[in-house]
Write a structure and sequence with these properties.
Helix content of chain A: 55-70%
Radius of gyration of chain A: 29 Å
Largest sheet of chain B: 3 strands, antiparallel
Shape of chain B: globular
CATH superfamily of one domain in chain A: NADH-ubiquinone/plastoquinone oxidoreductase chain 6, subunit NuoJ
Distance between the termini of chain B: 42 Å
CATH class of one domain in chain A: Mainly Alpha
CATH architecture of one domain in chain A: Up-down Bundle
Order of helices and strands of chain B: HHHEEHHHHEEHHHHEEEHH
Strand order of the largest sheet of chain A: 1-2
Number of helices of chain A: 8
Order of helices and strands of chain A: HHHHHHEEHH
CATH topology of one domain in chain A: Four Helix Bundle (Hemerythrin (Met), subunit A)
Oligomer: heterodimer
Amino acid sequence: MEEFSLSVAAFYFMAGLTLLGAGGVVFTENIVYSALSLMVSFFGVAGLYIFLNADFVAGVQVLVYVGGVLVLTLFAVMLTHQIAEIEVSNKSVGRVPALLICGGLFLVIAKALRGAEFFTTPGGQVSESSTYGIGNLLLREYILPFELASVVLLAVLVGAVVLSRKEVIAPDGTPVPERETIPLTEGQRVMSSPRAALAGAAAKQKVSDV
Amino acid sequence: MSLWAIGAVKSLLVLVFVLQLSAFLLWIERKGSALIQNRIGANRANIFGVVPFNLGFLNTLVADPIKMFTKEDFIPAGCDRFLHALAPFMALFPALITFAAIPFGDSIVLGGETVELRVVDLDVGLLYILAMVSMGVYGAVIAGWASNNRWALLGSIRGSAQMISYELAMGLALVSVVLSYGTLDMQDMVHAQGRTVLGFLPAWGVFFQPVAFIIIFVAGMAESKRVPFDIPEAESELIAGYFTEYSGGKQASFMLADFAEVVVVAGLVTTLFFGGWQFPWLAADGFHLPLMGTIEVSALVVTLLQLMAFSLKVLFFCWLQILVRWTVPRFRYDQLMDLGWKGMLPIALANVVFTAALILARGEGS
């Protein structure tokens, strides 16, 4: 049995936070609460990274997942019309098959983890800062996967731009306007140049008075 | 245990510094805006009519917070009560803890122990600050969503779009800063700014990265959601934006968070570009004045001068932000997006490439 110390307590706190958040994501009905539970889980993972002396990874975890991905998720949730009332759980499959699939996945991951070989540093020596190591590895040894990942991201970026573009190009290459221009009604004419329009109206009224 | 005590004292010191400065900024803003707009400003402050002079300062620091926090806390019927209560904390918390990574003085020796004058000795200080700044958007998003009010929701959507856009430019500008310093550690950055170039000029970051300074300062002001970047709370369009449905202490928390972000931006800019706690020409043993030789100063005086230099620089940048806030009108939404995406982002990217090329050309890369 491991000796109970502050660091062990910190580990269990972080692990508990992660699991609690993950449970919240799955079990809350409200999608905004799910997103916020995911944030708790992300923070738990960031805490575990700090616990493992990987402060660079922890910072990136918070920056990318909490400050980026999750904010975009919330943004999408808010832009979606009345998403709070939508039933997000898929009830058609049922809980038993879901449990079977999740349990199977858990077994596979657990088996893979048990068979995996973990790198350990001899004598419990950990480097002071992981930033230099990560930078050197990414830009020297793993430069090809690193650049490939950025190409994938670029493809995603281009795809998003194509999807969200308003104008549609016809097969023969001519741009098709999305909607016809609406003719200006009287009210809009007044709003576009109120002074001239009102002055004209006043002039007309004067003429009719006479 | 003394480690814990020192840590606690430092945390408390910085927290009080940020909170006090935030409250003080409210008064500076009232008086400053009056100065800019040729008014007198907050001048109805007197204790029972017996004090012959104006106490506007006390009024803002004491009477206003008491008034705010004793007001009725109104919670609208259709709102999400839990998130409505959570949002002010989510706004205030990142703003208050960001300052933890900013050093406010050199390390001092106290009772045989070396004490670093910052709350946490982070190797990845800049990354931490960027992460905390990126969390600032949650307060606005959750407040707007929980309020169940269309103006509030519009405000929070605008806020999140704005903050995501400007974070990108800010992050890229920080990359060029990191490239030129070669570290993420804020204290190392300040140390690097302690030398002089050409014999007389303090080696402040602004002389090496002027473009990054402008981008980070502007993006930081956008993150603090104040005029000219206040479209999330544009009061002429959205009542009060994302905190329309807030009153009393919760609304005061949002205001305080905004001012705390002003302080954080000032601290960040000071540390990255204006030498942090470095007093010009002051080293650990005294002044090294160009052409005038060395004047020796005791260690205590050096520390005090450093603290003073840091505080004055932070105050200056707070004042600069207030000056901008009362000088420039609000951006329209498309102008704001144009500035962020078509203006600052390409310039920041070009700055990164330029900096990297320069470092490579000088052979410092490897």
